[in-house]
Specification:
alpha+beta, five-stranded mixed beta sheet, 46% helix, binds copper (II) ion, 10 strands
Length: 364
Amino acid sequence: MTTLMIFIVLVLVGIAIWQMTKIFELTQLKTESGEIANDTDNKNNGYMLFAFLIFIYGITIFSFWKYSKFLLPEASSEHGGEYDYLMLVSFVIIFIVQTITQALLHYFGYKYRGKEGNKALFYADNDRLEFIWTIIPVIVLAGLILWGLYTWTNIMDVNDEDDPLMVELYAQQFNWTARYGGEDNVLGKANVRMIDIDRANVMGLDEGDSYATDDVIVKELHLPVGRKVNFKMRSQDVLHSAYMPHFRAQMNCVPGMTTEFSFTPIKTTEEIRRDSDVIEKVKRTNAIRAQRAAKGEDNSDPWEYDYILLCNKICGKSHYNMQMRIIVETQEEYDAWMASQKTFGETMAGTAPSSEEETVAVAD
Ligand SMILES: [Cu+2]
């Protein structure tokens, strides 16, 4: 790194000296200076504009061809389709406008290149032209913004209609914990001040709150397909962001407050694994992993596709590894899994009260 910095500094110093000598040359007031562009120079520069145009079109086509496979598969949440469609329309408009304007920009740059003896025409303004190139973007942008606001309001409308499943996502450096409302589907009170590591009360649940007793705390998020989920996000330490890319969902987790997001998963993990794009992706990844295995390197076990919850705020040095698996399954599978989990009350009953309380009890 230091070598690179020294190299960059040397190059910049070199450029500065070169520019200074050029300024010095210009001050010598030579009548025949090689620095003034002639017709051939202007023409060559004009051709270079076309070469650059071909380059940017070429790199666009190349990127589509080479990198499209890295895009996410079709959305696995109810609102995801609408969100993706809005983004697609925005991209198509930007793509068309950019393709046309770049061509015009470079063509006019060539057409009106400098010519010996030519004098530029002074053209003050043209109201009609100004109107056209103002009103078109205004209409298009206003349309996109209104549609975006409408979509945003729909997605962000977190309410308790349709009996949503209540899930809390708890962020801390550097892992996620999820909590379900349990039998009553109500999340018990919690506060970071009530965290008791010795007794495994890692999320600071209020032991005196009856709603908290049946809460279920897990390290793997299971969701029944087709049921709306209301997420409540909390953070223990710094800003995190709960990001579930397959469901087109993201919400900041802010210390000291609860944030919300809601979505309905529409495809089970089994279903997404049968998606043709996903099958291709798994094949490619496992081919790389097989090569690694042959060389005896790490990370070489065959990989299975999974939904995932990631942290999307750079929250510290292990931020990149802050993730939790999400499994979307049928209601029956979900019920069976949930039945095998311990409630908060059961976990706490298994732990001895802290020594302080014990001493007090003995003294009494
Ligand atoms: Cu984080």
